[in-house]
Amino acid sequence: MNVNKTLLGGILLASCLLPATGHAIDSAPALYNIGEIQVQNARLGNSEATANCGMSSGEISDAVIKSFRGDSLPVFSPINAPPSKESVARIDLLPTVMSLQTDDKTCTSWVSFSAQSRNLVILPPIKTPRYITATYWEGGMMVYSTKGGHAQAIINAIDKITGQFSRQYKIDQPPSSTPAPEIEKAP
Prior knowledge:
The chain is of the alpha/beta class. The chain has a single domain (32-171), classed as 3-Layer(aba) Sandwich (Rossmann fold). It contains four helices and six strands. The protein has helices at residues 2-17, 47-52, 57-68, 150-172; strands at 34-39, 43-44, 75-76, 89-100, 106-121, 130-146. Strands 1, 2, 3, 4, 5 and 6 form a six-stranded mixed β-sheet that branches. Helix 3 (57-68) packs across helix 4. The longest helix is centred in the C-terminal third of the chain and has 23 residues, at 150-172. The protein is globular, with a radius of gyration of 22 Å.
């Protein structure tokens, strides 16, 4: 009897430790039907170290927007944002760069993106509205380089992360609902 309990406990423990695969029953992928992606200004963990390593918040945000060009994603900056439409889901893409300068010659940065939305909800039994943040996607990578080449290392990291996000966005979208072109019949 103890062997059965031990075996059952081991199976339950193993199932908790294994990564989850797939989606819950009847759930959609995280970026499903997102119609607009607004790239916010980059957040810097240490603006002085990031500046010493060759980048500013504005330059990072511009690099993110530039990296998305040609990907045919509905990406724009807050300055170029179209008015919100009730029927179109919009998320914010928040680039973050946390830089550390350990000496005068090298820089290390964590470059990451988080795709989020902030929504007002009322959860019973309290009738006070509260904001919740829903995170749809996260990705990031660590870069290390000399001080002179660090700006390019950050841009390369941004390109890789935007590529990952773009692939996931395209995979998560619903199938195209455009009808197939009609084939002309010969007379």
